[in-house]
Amino acid sequence: MSNKCFRVVMANKFNSGDSRTRSSVSIFIIAGLCCFFYLLGAWQRSGFGKGDSIALEMTKSGENCNILPNLNFETHHVVEAGTINDSDSEVKVYEPCTSRYADYTPCQDQRRAMTFPRDNMNYRERHCPPQEEKLHCLIPAPKGYVTPFPWPKSRDYVPYANAPYKSLTVEKAIQNWIQYEGNVFRFPGGGTQFPQGADKYIDQLASVIPIDNGIVRTALDTGCGVASWGAYLWKRNVIAMSFAPRDSHEAQVQFALERGVPAVIGVLGTVKMPYPSRAFDMAHCSRCLIPWGANDGMYMKEVDRVLRPGGYWVLSGPPINWKTNYRAWQRPEKELQEEQRKIEEIAKLLCWEKKSEKGEIAIWQKRMDADSCRSAQENSGATFCKADDPDDVWYKKMEPCITPYNKANRDEDSAVDVKPFPERLYAVPPRIASGSLPGVSVEEYLEDNKKWKKHVRAYKKINKIIDTGRYRNIMDMNAGLGGFAAALQSPKLWVMNVMPTISEKNTLGVVYERGLIGIYHDWCEAFSTYPRTYDLIHANGVFSLYKNKCNFEDILLEMDRILRPEGAIIFRDEVDVLIKVKKIIGGMKYDSKLVDHEDGPLVPEKILVAVKQYWVGNSTSVQ
């Protein structure tokens, strides 16, 4: 072979080797780039790289990233006002409203109420301001405001500065509702119908109603006054949802919540109560001034809708025992006699069995099976409600009709007997066991319980004082199946489980079947409560739910209105949503931190915790 041929052959061999080498290198580079971009995408989806600098710092700080040493949940009044713990620019600063708005209730505003008809208490119902009239300032606390006493001391004492209204101490002096002593109000536990105290009164009821064995757990107090009935039921493991109208007696619902008793502003008027059907084990009226026999028994029929089969209705005061008391009540004998006759007639029509009448207390029990008197109802010409869903009540007009006891109701109540509390808390609720709640299986319910136990454990690592009794009044703005409240269950606290009216699944009935309480509400409007009535607010997915429905700013201003100074909020939502929320509350006198999901930084759902700073009206800095 010539030298020329040899050089050509060797060149071809070397070129072939170079090609194979270059091909291998190319494959390696492409594979490396694929891995790099995959990891980059996962990193970005987790929220990092989108302004989530706080979450990044928390991830770098070590394994125990849920502990927040910088965020102080303790009660103190020395935090500087207006501190914005956020690197984002252009944070809008919200100014305080004037002090005259200290007790502002947007949907029960007294001036607006007077423009509505007085018939059937229409003017006392919810009448919310239009968008252009909504306040965009922060509701101030009154001067001298302090954190309420811990339960159970709060049941008996409320700081005067928190609700500085003495009118009830004069109006109700004889009835022993409330007394003013030094710098506190004292609540002796008296009432118009229980002069010997609420405990003695409840003992009378317990001689007929099984109050002490867990069968009666949820109660409804209509026209509650300062809610002493609900306050004294608590130690018997009964939780009462109390309501009264705004200022028929000044600040009565405000006093109830300052005492640590569940209550809302409400009235039996023209609109259905914001509770699901068959929710309560017991309903109560103690001289509540509701005209039960009026409007063809419409109000008794509405109570029947929310009363569980086998539940009890207690009526004490006029017209019960009218023969003895008509002179003391200063009412005509015949008028009272006719009033009681109508009540007895409607109760019979509703299949309520009278269990007792002793003194001024009468007690009826709703029958477990209404079929036994269905023919009598039909023969009497009773009107049955035509609506398919007895839980569809938000702004729905009340009607003088009987909620039918349909097949679905019977299946729910017979599928699983209602367990006594606390066993009821984690037993499978009848609505789920019967399959009558679309989209929620028994397995999903059990998984939901596991999930919320895990979430609440994480919350307790973030905020170590959740279990201490510091937070008595707690709200869950998007309650779902009630898993958050169940995981928190303690005699030191209670949870108002709110079911947004726009939720895909209406599960508030399940919440009640677990022995918890709650209410329907649309967060595009103000809640039916006074300012500063909740210690801790939980907002799980609320802002994703209401995206494109109403302004985040309006929801956050309402949350600020109902949260006490130095109260806390726990937001759980997608990171993009929480970054927006964090920026807004940065101008609302809050300290906040964004932390990772319990399962780590790659989960797009995050947790934002915030603490409201202490400040009062007419102050430019925190006191």
UniProtKB/TrEMBL annotation:
GO terms for molecular function: methyltransferase activity. One of its GO terms (cellular component) is endosome. Its main location: membrane. It is a single-pass type II membrane protein; Single-pass membrane protein. GO terms for biological process: methylation. It comes from the Eukaryota. Its EC number is 2.1.1.-. The chain crosses the membrane at residues 21-43. Keywords: Glycoprotein, Golgi apparatus, Membrane, Methyltransferase, Signal-anchor, Transferase, Transmembrane, Transmembrane helix. It is found in: Endomembrane system; Golgi apparatus membrane; Membrane. PANTHER family: METHYLTRANSFERASE PMT2-RELATED, SAM-DEPENDENT METHYLTRANSFERASE. Belongs to the methyltransferase superfamily. This is Methyltransferase. It comes from Olea europaea subsp. europaea. The lineage of its organism: Eukaryota, Viridiplantae, Streptophyta, Embryophyta, Tracheophyta.
